[in-house]
Amino acid sequence: MGKQKLTNTPLFFQSKLLCISVLYLFTTVFIAIYTFLSPTKCLFRSSPFDPIQTPLFSYPPSYGEHKYVVPTHRSSCSSPVLFSDYWTVLKEIQGLCRKQLVSSPALRYMKRKSESFGGNFSTRKRLSYFHRLNDIEDEVPCGFLQEFPVSDSDRIAMESCHGVVVVSAIFNDHDKIRQPQSLGSRTAEDVCFFMFVDDATLKGLHHHQVLSKESQKYNVGVWRIVKVSSENLYQNPAMNGVIPKYLVHRLFPNSKFSIWVDAKLQLRVDPLLLIHALVVSEKMDMAISKHPFFIHTMEDAIATARWKKWWDVDGLRRQMETYCENGLQPWTPKKLPYPSDVPDTALILRKHGLNSNLFSCLLFNELEAFNPRDQLAFAYVRDLMRPKLVLNMFEVEVFEQVALEYRHNLKKEGTSFSIGHKKGTKRVGHDVLVNATCCSKCQRYLLEMWGES
User: Fold this and answer.
1) Mind listing the pLDDT tens digit for each residue in 29-73?
2) Which residues of 270-294 are buried (b: 16+ CB within 10 A; e: fewer)?
3) Which regions span the lipid bilayer (predicted)?
């Protein structure tokens, strides 16, 4: 009998399958740690969140819902966001939505007939509602002084949404309908998705065969399409879009949380995870991204005039003078924890309650009084209203991680679909708004903004 050959190799390494498994484990852990610590990532997840793998809707090739994406090139992240486990989040938000917040005071909304949807109150009258809500019997003007023209079936569906609602709008066929990505397997059942459109947008959807003309109930993927008869609202389609954007708590009176998503955006993260991470966990009334370029309101006003984002330059000047006269100040560290005066309002997350509802009502009144450029009125309302808004203004790189931004539909000038310039648009020189306001009621604001006071 020959001698059995002895080997010094441990048994642990004699199994190829075991070696491969250990190697795979260490590789996975390394990648996970690298991803967690990588400065280019802003979103971390404690566990997989059970995404839906199948497409939500198949678009006709002619519709082009994924054209003209806006590129982003940020290489760092200064404030990463950690998402909890999907199922933990689902149960927690379901529990919050079931609670009846009896102890929380509710706003009382003004009810009467008016020539406009919001009442179009004077500056003094609007300002009077910023501070007088110590008495819960006080009524606040908050739109709906004319009927919001939707069908009875849509109205019932909106009132039946009792949890989280995701809202968007397309007026004047200015954008494409885009489906949210990475939805959890229960999200489509627990979250309401509503897209408001007008006749022009509906014609475009029929033209591209996204919707059937014969159908009376419109659904595109997760979105329920609600037709709004905009003839009975504002002439400006952008102003009509402001109604679901800021009066979402009135359109969906039984919802506890909401997310406004501009139609140019496509959500890349489950809305339940977003609400939980940016609002619930942080104990906020509202969450919104900082503007990528501007900190001061006047910077945004000057850019609005210079780049012809609003045609009435005199109106912009009057608006800024009104705000300066009534207390608007440039941003300084004294305004912390608010890190900026200018948000990017393409994505707004809210907990429906006294503070966020009041802010939304007051801001809507300012937009009706001047123009739908909501970033101009944002800090004015936020800083002067009482009670104070508990606001999470997160970093731009977070916004770019949670949503993809696309370019608007290109419209030919002079067509009925164009909402850019109007006849009589004034040519804007390099410093038209600055030159007009530097010796007016905003002189002190500008000097403080430039550090010359």
Assistant:
1) 554 454 444 445 788 887 766 878 777 888 888 887 666 677 776
2) bbbbbbbbbbbbeebbbbbbbbeeb
3) 12-37
Strands 286-290 and 223-227: unpaired
**67 is written with which tokens?**
């054209």
The most distant pair of C-alpha atoms in the chain lies apart, rounded to whole Å, by 110
Helices (H) and strands (E) in the chain, counts: 16, 14
Phi, psi torsion values for 105, nearest 5 degrees: -65, 145
Cα 86 from Cα 106, distance rounded (Å):
31
Which stretches of the chain drop beneath a pLDDT of 50? 1, 3, 5, 12, 31-32, 34-39, 102-103, 412-430, 432, 436-439
DSSP structural state of residue 430: T
Give the strand pairing for 286-290 and 343-351: antiparallel
Residue with tokens 């039946």: 160
Helix (H, G, I), strand (E, B) or coil at 383: helix
DSSP letter (8 states) at residue 374: H
Please state, in angstroms and rounded to a whole number, the distance separating the CA atoms of residues 291 and 273: 22
Q: Report the predicted TM-score, pTM, of the whole model to 2 decimal places.
A: 0.85
Residue 38: how many other CB atoms lie within 10 Å:
13
Question: What's residue 426's pLDDT?
Answer: 40
- Beta-carbon count within 10 A of 121 CB: 18
How far apart (Å, rounded) are the C-alpha atoms in residues 249 and 365? 15
- Which residue(s) pair with 165 in the sheet? 192, 258
pLDDT of 113-153, one tens digit each?
999 999 999 999 999 999 866 555 689 999 999 999 999 99
